[in-house]
């Protein structure tokens, strides 16, 4: 896994900070590599936690911030692809949700810029 992920990160020249649903997965993975003496010089110091972003948005909108990844995606008009709690499916859906929230924010920023350009 470490070799496969490392090769993918090098080929794609990806941003090195992992995108997760919750705080523990990336830390646990890195710890497993260390315990098994598997070199993995990737991942930055920061973790991009999509769940924290989701909780923030739900609180801003006065809604309960609880919910699984699947339920959270549904709240934003997305469907979960695959089997919940399967590591590969969860990772794929977390990334999809991250891009969805990024695109949503980009549209909001563009709308704000357009609104500011309207003259009276």
Polypeptide structure, described:
- With 120 residues, the protein is mainly alpha-helical.
- 60% of the residues lie in helices and 3% in strands.
- It has five helices and two strands.
- A two-stranded parallel sheet has the order 1-2.
- Strand 1, helix 2 and strand 2 form a beta-alpha-beta unit.
- It is globular, with a radius of gyration of 17 Å.
- The model has no long low-confidence stretch (mean pLDDT 91).
How much strand content do the residues show?
under 5%
Nearest-integer average pLDDT: 91
Distance from N terminus to C terminus (CA atoms, Å) equals: 58 Å
User: Which blocks of ≥5 consecutive residues have pLDDT under 50?
Assistant: none
- Please provide the count of β strands: 2
Radius of gyration over all CA atoms, rounded: 17 Å
- Major pleated sheet: 2 strands, parallel
* Overall SS class: mainly alpha
Order of helices and strands: HEHEHHH
Count of individual helical segments: 5
How are the strands of the largest sheet arranged?
A: 1-2
């Amino acid at each position: 896994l470490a070799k496969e992920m490392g090769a993918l990160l090098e080929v794609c020249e990806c941003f090195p900070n992992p995108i997760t649903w919750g705080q523990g997965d990336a830390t646990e993975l890195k710890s497993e590599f260390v315990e098994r003496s598997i070199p993995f010089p990737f991942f930055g110091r920061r973790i991009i936690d999509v769940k924290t972003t989701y909780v923030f948005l739900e609180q801003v909108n006065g809604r309960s911030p609880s919910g699984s990844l699947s339920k959270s995606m549904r709240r934003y008009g997305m469907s979960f692809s695959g089997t919940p709690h399967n590591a590969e499916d969860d990772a794929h859906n977390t990334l999809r949700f991250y891009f969805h929230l990024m695109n949503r924010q980009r549209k909001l920023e563009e709308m704000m810029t357009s609104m500011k350009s309207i003259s009276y």
